[in-house]
Amino acid sequence: MKRALLVIDVQKIYALEDSDYCVNNSLSIVEKINHLIKSFENKGEMVIYIKHEHSTDGSDSGRMFDFAGDNDSVEFARGSVDTEFIDNLYVVKNAPIIIKTRYDAFLGTNLRKLLEQNNIEKVVLCGFMTNFCCESTARHAHDIDYYVDFVIDAMGTPGTDRLSPEETTQATVATIESGFAMVVNSNDI
Question: What is the tally of structural domains in the chain?
Answer without folding.
Answer: 1
